[in-house]
């Protein structure tokens, strides 16, 4: 079974700073996806960024980027120029590749509560 | 532009009572899921439905039942609620997995906060 670990329960930074959230995972699979989801106080889960395991290039989405280290099974999220609206719970998640059909079951980490201070 | 809709948003139950959480999606997705979120534990999969007519257990299915009523709707039932089922419940949906044409994204509802006294 796959497991996902986020070792930082809470983090706090000043607005405009850069912050990195850590995530490690354990799997024997070779093909899989990794995700970061954001959950603001509204409780809505929002996809931030995804990474395919077969791609060596790290994914980026505007101010959000990842550092994917497949051998180390590490998948950290970097938020640059942090904004007040980035305040949220962030979840790292793993999905095993199941071929052309089938449910896409996510395994989530425990979450990191990020606070951006003005 | 509704996406995934869950009802009710909040519910308080007494131990032993039953209730059903309703979920509907309007994105024509094949797969639907029920997760529960507890502090310090992230989201854990309760049940899922890969396609209409099929349901399977997830990580924490005990005490729950599900029904995939049609392609749009996937309900979660608590037959005899227990305090350990106090949680926030999320329904989600996704397309069937196509390696090159699917982002793998799950689309979530806004959650239902359930308290069992």
**Largest β sheet strand count, sense and barrel closure of chain B:** 7 strands, mixed
Query: Based on CA inertia axes, which overall geometry of chain B fits?
Result: globular
Structural class of chain B: mainly beta
Number of strands of chain B: 11
Question: What is the terminal-to-terminal distance of chain B?
Answer: 35 Å
| Strand residues, percent of chain B | over 45%
Characterization of the model:
The complex is a heterodimer of chains A (118) and B (117). Chain A is mainly beta and 118 residues long. In chain A, 0% of the residues lie in helices and 52% in strands. Chain A contains no helices and 12 strands. In chain A, the strands form 3 sheets. In chain A, strands 2, 5, 6, 10, 11 and 12 form a 6-stranded mixed β-sheet that branches. In chain A, strands 3-9-8-7 form a 4-stranded antiparallel β-sheet, with no helix packed on it. In chain A, strand 7 and strand 8 form a beta hairpin. The mean pLDDT of chain A is 92. Chain B is an all-beta fold and 117 residues long. In chain B, strands 2, 4, 5, 6, 9, 10 and 11 form a 7-stranded mixed β-sheet that branches. In chain B, strand 5 and strand 6 form a beta hairpin. The radius of gyration of chain B is 14 Å and the shape is globular. At the A-B interface, strand 11 of A face strand 4, strand 5 and strand 9 of B.
